[in-house]
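Fold this sequence, please.
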Amino acid sequence: MELDTLTFGSGKPGSLDELDEILRGKASYTSDMNLDQQCHAVFLRSSYAHGRIVRIDTAAAQAMPGVKALITGKDLQAAGWGLIPPVAVFNDKNGVPMKSRAMPPLALDHVRYVGEALALVIADSVENATAASEAVHVEIEILSATPCPMDALRPSAPLVHHDLDSNLCMHWADGDLAQSESIFSQADHVIEVELEDPPVAACALEPRSAIAWWDAQHEKYTLIAPTQGVMIVRKLLAENVLKVPLEKLRVLTPNVGGGFGAKVQAYAEYAALLFAAHKIGRPVKWLAGRVESFLTDTHGRNSHLKARMAFDKTGKILGLQAHTVVGIGAYCSTYVAIVATNNTKNCLSSVYRIPSIYMESELVFTHAMPLGPYRGAGRPEAILMIEQLIEKAAKALAIDSVALRRRNFIAPSEMPYKAPSGQIYDSGEFEAVMDKALKLSDWDGFAARRRLSASKGKLRGIGMCCFLEVAGGILEEPAEIRFTDSNEVLIFLGAQAIGQGHLSTFTQLVANRLGISKAQVRLVSGDSDAIPGIIPTVASRSTMMVGSAVSLACDEAIERGRRIAAHLLEASERDFDFADGVYRIRGTDQSIPILEIASRLKKHATQLPPDIPHQLDNLAKFTSPTMSFPNGCHVSEVEIDPSTGELELVRHTTVDDVGVILNEDVVEGQIIGAVAQGLGQVIGESLRYDDSGQLLTASFMDYAIPRADNLPPIVIGHHVVPCRNNPLGVKGAGESGVAGSIPAATNAILDALSQGGFNGPLSMPFTTEKIWRAVQPSSSRETIA
């Protein structure tokens, strides 16, 4: 069974209108694909969050009509298949490695969260597989569960992993504690906040799915699945689970209907499906239901946040301390150690001059699905703490919050600026960004709008967030360019498109660089047999890292072409100009297009002298000296009806500095999408568990994902300060909307509530009931959950 990279779902030409393809339902996803002789898979999942597996009796199920195989964790274990480990493993504050626990493809001796897969049923139809799964008899000794990370730290808490003496995976720290304590002891003012950042679901439009098969003739596995990076999924599964050379597993990803971090993981289901395909010798297809997604996709956030900030008598920031407790679920996912430590630490300085920063993070096992990256991945947590401290300090010090921010901004003249986190900011004009946001949001006109709301019995609030993110992730990325003899240019990228407009952005970049038509450029990704690199699409790194590598590959092709043109036209390389895709000898009418050179080389490369390049094709690698630092200022405005607790998001204004903007439509689409996800978390999104570990919000009837009528008009402004760390001058754009919207909207809601007499702490999500209770007279106010 052969799948051609150029027709499989990657290899798309730049002339394709990908937006039209997606919106009109013409795009092909994993669920749309069907292979000859394929069977169907259904997973039998645990109904309990914690228990010892006593027995799994499959005899009756295996005898049912259409059943081809029934597989348990013991079957994979007996075959020598391994577990799925994390990629990132850090040391704790004492230098001891974290207590990493890898994911089993199917549960072995214990179940550790509701939804963990116990068995896999393969049948000739979904209906037969479902019926057989219901006939499997499972005996589980039910044990106490602890889904809450703060509860899981208690000495008496039930252990998630019984070979450990506690649920603490790692206690990590960064910074100079002695120096920090000295600064705080001498400070004129110390401001503290304590916040909950509840767990949330990614809620991609496309639930996970997969097709697996085994090619016995070539002894090779193939997996089709919606991933954020085929190479990392291949590496984790091939090396650790299947225990085969990398070339024996091919991973393919067609269109992806949203990732948001959750599709980075090499999921347990993928491993089990590959085993099943090998066992029955036929392709096996699985489609997750929405409930399965809620129960088993990696979730985001789930942090308890504490921070304090030291100020002098004039309002200058002296120091910051932060302590986070992060529930990481039952197992260690691919990048959980980074999400829960460095990603937060790197953003703690934000746009402010903070001389000293100290942070601790406790990563805690819980009886829940594993934690993974979710848009922002630890960064919004840092910004939320800082902006809450700034707002609280402004009230305590009787300084206007805008003035307090202005007093502590890092100035453009201080660039490059080395933050206490170790990050070196290359550029930024933070005060100018804030001033643009103030003007665009009509900040000065808010008092009149508040009076108008008050005349109608409403509470109106306004909130600001100034922020800086650290984007880029791992700072090395390759890109390969190939020229065909049919006047096409192929660009091979490891970055996987998950809705950010890669086809539009990168094909246009190549076309502009080479001076050719966008229709002549074809983007190839999503095939582990064809593409370079290993890093998935994460950390707002694609345009910065991949785009820069693409530019270098194009530049190398142009320089090779210059040498070849000089040989073909018998002239000096120095006499050539290159523009609009053509090499021209200055002062003459002699010229040759770069694509003609490529075509000639494909046919006659061997006729060139050995010192002349024989091809334009090349693999370029971009290595960035540092991350990029997108930053911005968001302003949210809200209105509350105190009689009902109803919250209306009236308006949200963003001014973002994402460096040079290559495609404004794509950038603004990313900002709007991220703002929507941030606001969704503020007003309602939250995964809620009962004490036994049952998820109470496992459908869109219970999980309050925002709808169009919940969201406000979003006004977008830009402030372009080119990044100095990459040839394109770009900064990450995919996640800053979350970092800015969550604190801005939170500050706006708390500002509105203060008009109703409530000045206490309150954490997300700000539900109608929670808001209503907050504005009730103190004598009748109940505890706010």
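The radius of gyration is 28 Å. Confidence is low (pLDDT under 50) at residues 5-9.
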